[in-house]
Design brief:
The complex is a heterotetramer, with 2 copies of chain A (about 350 residues) and 2 copies of chain B (about 270 residues). Helix content of chain A is about 25%, strand content about 35%. Chain A has about 350 residues and is an alpha+beta fold. Chain A has 2 domains: about 230 residues, P-loop containing nucleotide triphosphate hydrolases (Rossmann fold); about 120 residues, OB fold (Dihydrolipoamide Acetyltransferase, E2P) (Beta Barrel). In chain A, helix 2 runs parallel beside helix 4. With about 270 residues, chain B is an all-alpha fold. Chain B folds into 2 domains: about 35 residues; about 230 residues, MetI-like fold. Helices cover about 80% and strands about 0% of the residues of chain B. Chain B is built from 13 helices and no strands. In chain B, helix 7 runs antiparallel to helix 10. The chains are: A alpha+beta (about 350), B mainly alpha (about 270). Chains in contact: A-B, A-C, A-D, B-C, B-D, C-D. Chains B and C meet through helix 1, helix 3, helix 4, helix 5 and helix 7 of B and helix 1, helix 3, helix 4, helix 5 and helix 7 of C.
């Protein structure tokens, strides 16, 4: 368990202000915030590279505030890989083991194992400069976990990669966490990344932690307007692809029901579906139209936001079955919507955005 | 960006002045190296005096280069990585030897080591700088240390400190991170800096003349030899020294341009 | 980036070596300027010889600086703006005077102007370089032109050619665009380059010694005066020259750091 | 009139290949293309800064290929303003007049007039470095038009500005064109900018002009797949805001009918409305829902594009009344849509994107 107590640190342009945070063992924890929020310093302070101006850092209840990085046994992965350019892939991965005075054959065994795990064995003797971004990041991950750290810090690890590689490496990160039971602390400004990966999310802005919670809480119950503005509102549904015909996937949603979405994922793939509340239409009865998706539900909240009204409807049992819809105030009036009304939410297969779950 | 309206007058004029200047430089070099015959050059090179000068120059320059490296690595690292009180003043102080005429630097060294109690104390322990080869070394060191320092500062600044951070999370102390990561990454800068410092050390004249004097077969480096032989009209010996100096300069310039890269501060 | 685990050993060691080096430089300067008394310094400064040396130094350095500007502006512009055959070779040739020991450059100039038919032809028209103040000027020019050239090349490269393009669409010829836009935008680089070239010209010793010799009251610049007076033990006169040289160096260094900006090539 | 005949130019990374183009007098002509298409070289070749490797440039039927820039009398405005930093605003604007040896008082009068026109009189004595991006670009425009050029070349003039300033300067550019009757040649990679400003658009990719036409032709009738991919498909409607209640504007569209859209424009503002074809729903009858906009029409084209079907419906008289809708193939099948069918297109007020027209 990682515990930060009232950490403050001032580096001029970037700073931390009274950060208190608890990260559980084995958790995938994402710190989400805009550029310049101080996310990187926070990670580097956890790693011991910066000494906080005030506050304490505890790992498993022992105070490590004064412990140098080499004795904290925390892995670090940066956005720009930071592979040692004068060492081969193999030597990079073995770097930390060599520091620990481990025997050559033992290092070799360990490096081979990690290369196999991350599917980079064929790159073993190459130098970092000859690798693609995705390959470099896999080497950086292997190097960080070679020393078997209980905690892995990831500083925007996927931001420099193209979307296909990002999608693939997301899966790899999850696999690493599950395989080794490592506590992951992952910093990003990318909401989709946070939604897909996180067990819990902390939202950070201007050096402060503003909200900590599950992805659902963060994206659907933001604590204030700044947070709502930053995260946007999204409907997130988890599910599994049942069939995919001609690029239109039929997705069985965990909370019941089926959604059609334009997507390239195949039958059996676990996915998450994002729906922007502006793109959902409400009507009083089930019409026939080209919109592939119609969901029945009951209105349980109505709030005016500027020219729009935020409608929350309950479509089933669990919290994830709540759907948020944004409509104009005039639409609400003309349909005479009230809390408790039964309504149909309609959206097109092209409006549902699908990512690997 | 290239620009090329046909027959642009300004283009023709500027390129011509460029060629003229380059031609002037080239002619000068050729003047020196063709001013003697190959057999005469060979004889001169084989002479005891030139042999002595070559050996003394190579040795003193090598030692002063090592001294420059030894002090510049930590000093440049401090200025590249840390913030501390008086940093910008120190940055400026480091540039002074670049701006100071070498002759003045030599006079300063002569006074410091020859007349102060500090100098006298050193002399009593056997470290005599005035009119000895040791003086040549300290003169070369003083005049050239800013070059090494600037090249290394640029090199260290060009290395993302995150390389050291990662090494530390992987189990290195700060010193180990520097030795295992930063130093190997500075290879080119170190090479370029060493070559240029060594070459400038070999060519150093004014400061060495003041501190060590021009004594034949004692403090006679290649430039001092050139000076002594020009003074007494031994033209063949002088041209021999000059030719060696030109070769050393050109080779080191080439190496520097090849490896200097982002550390071009010369 | 600043890094600051409390009491980091490497931080303390490196900053200390930095301070040590800076302290050494400072002490040296202080040694020179405190080696005489103020009244003695005043008397020396008023002497005919020092007055002559000051005047000769200021004049020759000013003229050589103007020559450096006159050739460097077009040459640097050509290398900054145009692509042409042999460009990279020329860039390297321009660096040779930086790498060459000034003494060797002086020998080259002496041979070129003293022994070749080109030199003799020049001498017949009245342009005698050997053992005259003209020789001092050409020596300063040759040794320092690469500094001016590099500073201006950096300055011109830093100016987006679109400024000239816009000026041309607004009715300027290429030459007018250069004069009305590029030149005013190069003000800082020109100032920095001129100051450093002038200051280094005043300090030039080795090359001038070879071409113009060290003749009292004839080719006696400040460094030559320093050398002559050190040789014959006139310490007060020597320190006077050294002090002036130090003041000039420090002031020009300050101006250069202030205006050099992106053109730090020194 | 500007005529380019088979212009080729090779500058290594950037190049022009056999460019032939005719730009009419008084036209607002936009050259649209991705970064690196060679758009800037094309402008600089028209201005005379580059000499083409082959081909001819004609201004009003006289061959200017060999004429230097100063004699072409063409104004040039760059993305990065390129104001002379050592001159005041006033001196910058007067620069070209001074080159023309015009008297001081005449320069003063002319500069004052332009400063008034562009509302920058209060900046007259300031230096460029003290101005905002939008102010600098207004000065650059004033400087370029001070020499009364019949042609003004604009190289991504709005790309470095924030969206509010961009919107405002778009209006200023139109005003300059109308006031002085200048032929505008405007280079951009921004489709909205092209749609809003252009009388005609040329699409440029990899040094070649691929299509020239009206905005409608470019965005709705791309000649090949590359072009379609680059420009995307958009429905563009021109209109005037009639009322704006609480942030929802009622827009009267030129081709008849009314659209509701979330927008900040006021009654009387001329606007353009963009509608993404994926966000429109088709149905067989007019349903009642929260979607504020329902448009009736008849299907006149059906094309399959991957998993989707592109439906083109005719809603009235002029070509601009054609609406393109993207639906899934399965939706088309389940509704049994055929050419000639009468359908209702439904979209939300939040789906209609409004910009100043």
């Amino acid at each position: 368990m990682i515990r930060l107590e009232n950490i403050s640190k001032d580096l001029g342009e970037f700073f931390l202000r009274d950060v208190t945070l608890e990260i559980n063992e084995g958790e995938y924890f994402v710190i989400l915030g805009p550029t310049g929020a101080g996310k990187t310093i926070l990670l580097e302070t956890i790693a011991g590279i910066y000494h906080p101006d005030s506050g304490r850092i505890l790992l498993n209840d022992s105070d490590v505030t004064e412990v140098p990085p080499r004795e904290r046994n925390i892995g670090m992965v940066y956005q720009d890989y930071i592979l040692f350019p004068f060492l081969t892939v193999e030597e990079n991965i073995g770097f930390g083991l060599k520091s620990r005075k481990i025997g050559k054959s033992e290092i070799k065994r360990k490096v081979d194992e990690l290369e196999n795990l991350l599917d980079i064995s064929h790159l073993s003797h190459r130098y970092p400069v000859t690798l693609s971004g995705g390959e470099q990041q896999k080497v950086a991950i292997a190097r960080a976990i070679a020393i078997e750290p209980p905690i892995l810090l990831l500083d925007e690890p996927l931001s420099a990669l193209d979307s296909r590689t990002r999608d693939y490496l997301r899966g790899e990160l999850k696999r690493v966490k599950d395989e080794f039971g490592i506590t992951m602390v992952h910093v990003t400004h990318d909401q989709t990344e946070a939604m897909v990966l996180a067990d819990r999310i902390a939202v950070m802005m201007q050096g402060r932690i503003l909200q900590v919670g599950t992805p659902y809480e963060i994206f659907n119950k933001p604590l204030n307007n700044d947070l709502a503005d930053f995260v946007g509102v999204e409907n997130i549904l988890s599910g599994v692809v049942r069939t995919n015909e001609d690029g239109v996937a039929e997705i069985e949603v965990d909370t019941g029901g089926t959604i059609f979405a334009v997507s390239e994922y195949h039958a059996g793939d676990a996915v998450k579906v994002f729906l922007r509340p502006e793109e959902i239409i409400l009507s009083g009865h089930e019409g026939d139209s080209t919109a592939r998706n119609v969901v029945k539900g009951r209105i349980n909240e109505l709030h005016d936001v500027g020219p729009l009204t935020r409608v929350q409807m309950d479509t089933g049992r669990s919290e994830l079955s709540e759907l948020v819809v944004l409509i104009t105030k005039r639409s609400r009036e003309s349909l005479g919507l009230q809390i408790g009304d039964e309504v149909y939410a309609t959206f097109k297969a092209t409006s549902a955005h699908v990512v690997r779950g | 960006m290239l620009k090329e309206l046909k027959a642009s007058k300004i283009k023709i004029v500027t390129i011509l002045s460029c060629l003229l200047l380059a031609f002037f430089i080239l002619v000068l070099i050729i003047c020196v190296v063709t001013h003697t015959t190959l057999p005469a050059l060979m004889t001169s090179l084989a002479s005891k005096e030139i042999q002595f000068a070559i050996k003394l120059s190579l040795t003193t320059a090598a030692i002063s280069t090592i001294l420059c490296i030894a002090i510049s690595i930590p000093a440049a690292y401090a200025l590249a990585r840390y913030e501390f009180f008086g940093k910008s003043l120190i940055n400026t102080l480091m540039d002074i030897p670049l701006a100071l005429p070498p002759l003045v630097a030599g006079v300063g060294l002569l006074i410091l080591f020859g007349t102060t109690s500090f100098g006298k104390a050193l002399a009593e322990t056997g470290l005599v700088f005035v009119f000895t080869p040791l003086g040549i070394i300290i003169a070369q060191f003083f005049v050239n240390v800013p070059f090494m320092f600037r090249i290394l500062r640029g090199t260290f600044q060009g290395i993302n400190p995150r390389y050291e951070h990662v090494a530390e999370t992987l189990g290195c102390t700060e010193a180990q991170a520097f030795r295992r990561v930063t130093l190997p990454m500075s290879k080119n800068g170190l090479l370029a800096g060493s070559v240029i410092t060594w070459s400038k050390g070999i060519g150093e004249f004014g400061a060495a003349l003041m501190v060590a004097g021009a004594t034949r077969m004692k403090t006679e480096t290649l430039p001092i030899s050139l000076y002594l032989n020009m003074s007494c009209g031994e033209l063949n010996l002088a041209i021999a020294s000059a030719t060696i100096l030109i070769v050393i300069s050109l080779v080191s310039l080439f190496v520097f341009e090849r490896y200097g890269g982002f550390a071009r501060v010369f």
